[in-house]
Design a protein that fits this description.
The structure is a homodimer. Chain A is α/β, with parallel strands linked by helices. In chain A, about 40% of the residues lie in helices and about 20% in strands. Chain A is built from nine helices and seven strands.
Amino acid sequence: MRKINILKPILVSNKQRAIENRKKFDSMNSLVINIIASPGAGKTSFIYRVVEHFKRNYRVLIIEGDIRGQVDSECLLKLKVDVIQINTLTECHLDAFMIAQVLPKIKKKYDLVLVENVGNLVCPAEFEIGEDYKLAILSTPEGDDKPLKYPLLFHLSKVVVINKCDLLPYVDFSLKKAKAGFKKENPKIKIFDVSAKTGKGFEKVYRFLERELKVKKKGFRR
Amino acid sequence: MRKINILKPILVSNKQRAIENRKKFDSMNSLVINIIASPGAGKTSFIYRVVEHFKRNYRVLIIEGDIRGQVDSECLLKLKVDVIQINTLTECHLDAFMIAQVLPKIKKKYDLVLVENVGNLVCPAEFEIGEDYKLAILSTPEGDDKPLKYPLLFHLSKVVVINKCDLLPYVDFSLKKAKAGFKKENPKIKIFDVSAKTGKGFEKVYRFLERELKVKKKGFRR
């Protein structure tokens, strides 16, 4: 109870700041996706494939959130697109103020801004950053019970990517059960089964994002 | 910066409460282990095996922390030991006050209290609950770079269990690299490689915990 009293005003002021960030991104017609998953679910590998596909025809920016270090940024820089690193130090999530702090560094108009949040299924879902929408990733070794245990994230996400489907023969994970869990939390959620390792399933992701980018370019707000 | 100013006094008052909890557990010679890992790393399966092994000769209590629901408690109740469920609702971690709230429910003297924290590598490391020590679990599909990315947890843990070693042939995970990372953060850390699915590697875990339980029973404080 003690902490909830503190959390509420923080979330309200965060929401205000997120709206400001969103206006700025909208003014550039940037599609901003807040990517949220557990540690090691494959956020960076997912981003790598998406950027590799879109960088020829779209201007892409990656904002990389980590507690400490820049292991993922170093990997993503190989793609030769712009990457901004945010180190949260003690914080388990990105918030709208952290994004606001890096906004002045954004000098170009980007079509696609992919934000890799800190590896965590809880707080990143609570803190809006000014995104068009959240994209959650769940990897098969984590288990098909996660929609039950972390309902807020899946309730708020427009898209969920089930990653590491190449491991399905070796882990106890029912795609059917997981999908039913996602749909229960959010009947409209869009689900993709992929393997960021092998690339399987990404064609559908690309087609979906291509449509989203075109809509955004026309200045259509979500 | 805004949030760190709030976090500090919270952590100080939490620490005070954790010391009180610890006194209570010590008065009963209970060995209390705070088990921390990502969602789906195998905390419940690890606890299942440990309890199954020790319940014949020791009195065991499980304290189960989840945002919502009681999927894991229901699984652990099959072991026919006492389980106390804590639902944190919005919180991404257990804290000393939540443990204090359930202390009055603890009517018996338990030799071993296993606390399954909320699935998260960040905040659970910051909030002491009155434990003897933290035991971290990292599963192989999460990747061997986690000690670099979540240094605090591995710095503070006495033990780290590398779980899902049965998946080693199918994932990019170097045991050598992971172990070097753990040792860099914490040269004294005790490392076990296991598979909670097959049971491989657990004999060493049991021997270690058996020694710990004997020491604690003699009333030796860590």
